[in-house]
Amino acid sequence: MSILVIAEHNNQHLEAATLNTITAASMLGTDVHILIAGEQCDQVAEDAATIKGITKVLLAQGKNYAHRLAENTAPLIHSLADVYSHILAPATTFGKNFMPRVAALLDVDQISDIIAVENDNTFRRPIYAGNAIATVESSAVKKVITVRSTNFEAASKSDHSAPIETIDTAFDTGTSSFIELTKEESERPELTTADIVVSGGRGMGNGENFELLYKLADKLGAAVGASRAAVDAGYVPNDMQVGQTGKVVAPNLYIAVGISGAIQHLAGMKDSKIIVAINKDSDAPIFQVADYGLVADLFEILPELTEKV
Amino acid sequence: MKVLVTVKRVIDYNVKVRIKPDNSDVDLSNTKMAINPFCEIAVEEAIRLKEKAAVSEVVVVSVGDQTCQEQIRTALALGADRGILIETENPPASLAVAKLIKAVVEEEKPDLVILGKQSIDTDNNQTGQMLAALLDWPQGTFASELNIENNKATVTREVDGGLLTESLNLPAVITSDLRLNIPRYVSLPNIMKAKRKPIDSKTPESLGVEITSTNKMIKVESPAVRESGVKVESVDELVKKLKEEAKVLA
Ligand SMILES: Cc1cc2nc3c(=O)[nH]c(=O)nc-3n(C[C@H](O)[C@H](O)[C@H](O)COP(=O)(O)OP(=O)(O)OC[C@H]3O[C@@H](n4cnc5c(N)ncnc54)[C@H](O)[C@@H]3O)c2cc1C
Ligand SMILES: Nc1ncnc2c1ncn2[C@@H]1O[C@H](COP(=O)(O)O)[C@@H](O)[C@H]1O
Q1: Which of A125, B22, B67, B201 is the most exposed place for a label (fewest CB within 10 A)?
Q2: Is residue A176 included in any domain, yes or no?
Q3: What is the complex's ipTM, to 2 decimals?
């Protein structure tokens, strides 16, 4: 049977996590299809058709899929499920929203947030905020899986183009409607794919002080993240939160500034290649995972570091 | 209007979990247990709706063994009106929980069900969405703001790209994110009052739900530990190490 990947996109381009999901899918079979559900997103379908490993693109377009509301997307995927053994989506807020709905329609348990594929029906996934790794075997006829993107390489482009098939079924339950999406535009790289991430915590003191981090980030070409405490206190928006319940990142370099290192924060960054911690408390747990720790006042250190990198 | 909220008994979020030496599972014996933090937020939201008179009754449901009575009592002390314990030996997997809650929804006929977005033990993030699918209701997941008006719920959701607002017809399922509210502390008088509030017991059999799962846990291991690093004395030393040793800076 074939494998189906649900693409995350914004009607204009594929989101990066889709590429990592395709790599996970390719470990399960050679016939990997990708579903693009959206509105006026032909371009996304054409791009998807040229990704290595993709053998067919399913394109479902309409107003009802414009914002990929779970109420409409889940029955669409369910209606396509017959020929697939595995259905995968990124474990982002996009995939987490509708995939369990698909699983319930198929009467199977979802396998959430996999970090490794052992074989067709066995997967590894973190539990307890990453403090334990479970190996899970699924007996489901159809396996519904969300994929942690940081644990799989991004699929690359190929020189062929897979066929694009149009899906005409328009599910529209009419029970939910999109009102608005508010986001703070930023020129900086995307948090989950950046090579370097600089994160600030409660120690930053207020939102204005984050400027110090932005300066460092811009010099390094880095993305900026935050702890929950910094988000809760209103220093920065919610989409910057790294951790068990925020985003998971695994850059080459993660610099934690004024972050104590609670397990919930570590859950989102401890797979980073190199971790640097800057904290004035030498006993802060963040130092236990840091490759390089600097015990110092961040307000003195940040300007100097920005100057010297 | 009636609201149903779910509370799951889980390891306290401050406690680091132990893994059994035979790697069969985690070891929860003598471990401090608590209400799943997201569920506490769900309960608080339901109580606030009641205080705003948007809601007349708050019913709290938990699935698990007798010890879950503690978490139901805590929710009653926070202000929920009555409890339902669906007794099972271990907490079942998400789909089975969703089916059990669905059966309770069919008996209780609430207009709104609020769950936590995620259990901090399994980190599944599934049950609310599954319940919504089984009921064929709309869902507002990862909610950081909820307003009920004219038989509709307006919900602001924390998504990777920012904040997404949707309008849902009632009845609907909501799952709470961390910033939906800050739960109140339970006061002693309310703990006393909660002792007199009723808790009903049900079983999967009485609800006609079979507890099965297509997921089987075959092994639990510790994650790879990071080798402990070094402390550096100055910015100069740090920059030198990053460039020459770690080679992550050019
Ligand atoms: C269910 C649940 C889910 C959660 N999910 C997440 C999550 O996804 N992500 C997350 O981050 N947290 C999460 N948390 C919260 C987590 O438990 C911690 O409360 C949080 O990570 C603490 O943030 P912090 O390190 O910024 O703040 P604090 O713990 O207050 O640490 C601040 C640090 O800054 C240092 N500092 C202060 N001033 C200076 C200075 N001038 N110079 C240098 N250092 C300074 C202090 O020494 C201290 O170590 C979650 C909690 C729960 C219950
Ligand atoms: N055994 C249970 N008893 C009560 N509620 C539960 C149970 N399991 C899951 N839930 C609810 O579903 C939410 C999401 O759980 P999960 O899908 O396991 O991450 C939790 O925050 C609870 O509100």
Answers
A1: B22
A2: no
A3: 0.96
